[in-house]
Amino acid sequence: DADVTQTPRNRITKTGKRIMLECSQTKGHDRMYWYRQDPGLGLRLIYYSFDVKDINKGEISDGYSVSRQAQAKFSLSLESAIPNQTALYFCATSGETSSSYNEQFFGPGTRLTVL
Amino acid sequence: DAKTTQPPSMDCAEGRAANLPCNHSTISGNEYVYWYRQIHSQGPQYIIHGLKNNETNEMASLIITEDRKSSTLILPHATLRDTAVYYCIVRVATYDYKLSFGAGTTVTVRA
Prior knowledge:
Chain A has strands at about 5, 10-15, 20-25, 30-35, 45-50, 55, 65-70, 75-80, 85-95, 105, 110-115. Chain A is mostly beta strands. The interface between A and B is medium-sized, with 27 and 20 residues.
């Protein structure tokens, strides 16, 4: 079983719709992240969370919101989707031990298309 | 503001070593060099990281110049499955939890 899972894997929606992307992890990590990737570009950080009560904006948080329902779950919402939010979205986790904080573990991604 | 500079693409023959350069001339004394790779549309995968000493693991070797202004990731025996985009990232490991991905280097391993 995958350590970091994302649902749905693919989603097509219409402009103005609310949509939620979900991320779950079984690694026991406290830190979770949401990134987006546009074609031909690197990843950009949307939001990150160090624990259930700590949520922070990343470099491109406008138009997005998040919810950390539990240590293992971190959801990303688009309140009113727009076409330029069409992208590949990745969730990632990292731990706090001396070895695991060096590495972020990524989910398989959610491909979102906003028409 | 880009902290690293990488060539946009490079080819490598299967079975040969692939040497991927990265320039990070403004790196600070407490910043590490990290390498990740992303195989077509999959989630990025951690490869290796280092501060100033050369590092080796089961995937690759990392060579950092003495002045730390550049580094080279070495894939010792490239296979077709190593075809991916490789990202060089500098960050402070303990405090700078964010990974800032640039465009990376697209490496194509050819049979």
